[in-house]
Amino acid sequence: MSGETIKIEFELPKDLFFRNPIISQTLIKAEALKRLAATFYADGSLSLGKAAQIANVSKQDFLDFLASHNIPLNYDIRELDEDLSSVKEFLQDENRL
Questions:
Q1: Which of 9, 29, 46, 51 is buried deepest, with most CB atoms within 10 A?
Q2: In the chain, what are the domain boundaries?
Q3: Chain mean pLDDT for the chain
Q4: CA-CA distance, 47 to 20, in Å (whole number)?
Q5: Is the pLDDT of residue 63 over 70?
Q6: CB 65 within 8 A of CB 41
Q7: Helix axes 59-68, 25-42, angle to 10 degrees
Q8: What is the pTM of this model?
């Protein structure tokens, strides 16, 4: 990713905040980003890493979010090959292979 971002804004009913004073704009934004990223991850539009990046959480936290919402992992053979290559490179760098 180039580091460039776009800004997307949307409006919510003001009474949403009055019904539940614990809900803040920050919490709503964080939850909306996670749910949006999860939707795109679930339909295969985003990789796990990109979805976690959009959600502004670690991969592990995003995996936990997916699990808590019963969203299955999209893990194909290509990703397995990439992960195995990464592990192999790490082990070679550490002189463990």
A1: 51
A2: 15-72
A3: 87
A4: 34
A5: yes
A6: no
A7: 80
A8: 0.69
The H-assigned helical ranges of 43-76 are 48-55, 59-68
Q: Which of 49, 44, 54, 53 is nearest to 76 (CA)?
A: 44
Residue-wise pLDDT for 1-20, tens only, equals 467 888 888 887 877 766 77
Span 25-41, pLDDT tens digits: 788 889 999 999 999 99
Residue type, 5: T
Burial class (CB in 10 A: 0-12, 13-18, 19+), 65: buried
Buried/exposed 15-36: b ≥16 CB within 10 Å, e otherwise? eeeeeeeeeeeeeeeeeeebee
Q: Which two tokens stand for residue 52?
A: 């976690």
Instruction: Spell out the long-range contacts of 52-60 with Cβ–Cβ below 8 A and sequence spacing 24 or more.
Output: 53/1, 56/30
Residue 84 half-sphere exposure toward CB, CA atoms < 13 A: 7
